[in-house]
Amino acid sequence: MQKWIMSGLFFAACAFAVILMFTLPGKSEVAEENKPTMPEVVLDAASAEATVKANCISCHGDQLQGGAGPSLQQEGASHDAPQIYSIVTKGRGQMPSFKDRLAPEEIANVALWLAEKK
């Protein structure tokens, strides 16, 4: 009887291991999620400014001077566009992720716009 129980447990453990092998993300998927790739866009300053006014001023201030969030007036001095894109896409600290609120192209346009602020 004990052989049957141990065999059953072994079979269940093997089946569970096989299921995990096919459902867990691979290294490349995890790497892509951790470092999103910024799409190629041409800077449209008016559109970027409108996106920032619609989504960012509640925390970063109407002049990007800071408030609940840090000042973004000289963001380009500390981060380049791909870094800003990653922060806005994934979120960081108290800042939420915007990947579900904005299109990747909108985030990239804002990142380019903020990267010019030095």
From TrEMBL:
Concerning Pfam families, the annotation shows: Cytochrome_CBB3 (PF13442)
Task: Describe the location of the Cytochrome c domain by residue ranges.
Answer: 43-118
What's in the keyword line of the UniProt record? Electron transport, Heme, Iron, Metal-binding, Transport
Q: Is Protein biosynthesis included in the keywords of this UniProt record?
A: no
Q: Tell me what this protein is called.
A: Cytochrome c
